[in-house]
Model the fold of this input.
Amino acid sequence: MSDIQKAAQIIQEGGLVAFPTETVYGLGADALNPYAVAQVFEVKNRPTFDPLIVHVADLRQAEILVQKFPSAALKLVEKFWPGPLTVVLPKSPMVPDIVTSSMPTVAIRVPNHPLALELIRESGRPIAAPSANLFGQVSPTTAEHVRKSFGKKIEMILDGGPCQVGVESTVLSFIDKEPVLLRPGGAPLEEIQALIGPVRVAQKAPGQILAPGQLESHYAPRTPLILAGPQEALPQGQRLGWLGLGKPADPGPFAAVESLSEHQDLREAAANLFAAVRRLDERNLDVIWALPVPDQGLGRAINDRLTKASHRK
Ligand code: AMP
Ligand code: MG
Done:
């Protein structure tokens, strides 16, 4: 039996499989089996008010899970699927409440990774999967990251090498009259707007949850991370780590340096982000000093993750 066949059997029997996608590694369960999905929340320690994305192999499988596919959503998925775009649509009754946190809507995407697609096809099930890390912590972009978080707690980890995109999918809701960006991600907002026109960027009232990616604290390393403002002074007398594009102007004060991209390439920076944060987190630093990147293309998703990683309660 191949690894994919084994993994598919685990999914069919209600178990959990971690698998690679182009964004981050996912912790997958049969989306139509509420018991299996409950285990995802349990293993991740994820609150059940935080709904999951359902991964499907193609548009046809997506259509079964929703009541309707508005034409703007169709236009987008024709360009971006398979790829890092998640659409939120009115759900069909067959999607269990636990997947959607009892909302009448479901989030769906087709991942762009051969192992993910084979797993979905071989199991014959849509697969509900959040990132394969403990809730609130740094997302996994290698199989080793997943092993460190879960070890034997999950039945199988499919290893597909490092994730190519490296940040989570862009989440776009088609529930209101105009499309709403719930989370910036791997599909650049500029490219989305070029296809369907203006998109509203969701503004969230404090404490209100529109989407899991909108929790204020998320993607956080154990080491305090400061997202440096333009005039902010470097902390003194501390072991500092540097995180940013290119190189620090003066490397002197830093015990560790992680360049997201030597040539300021935002795609490369996104692909490196979570692994770089994890490496810094292992260096016994007092503070990770992170510099924001240009707020365009994938830079929007990178800044979003850094902002949430830096949130202090
Ligand atoms: P992750 O923790 O990466 O799996 O994040 C899941 C993402 O799914 C969040 O950012 C949400 O935007 C999104 N999501 C899932 N289901 C829904 C839903 N029914 N309505 C709105 N957003 C959803
Ligand atoms: Mg996550």
User: Anything to note?
Assistant: The pocket of adenosine monophosphate (ligand 1) is lined by residues 51-53, 88, 100, 103, 105-107, 130-131, 168, 171, 173, 182-183, 211-213 (CB under 6 Å).
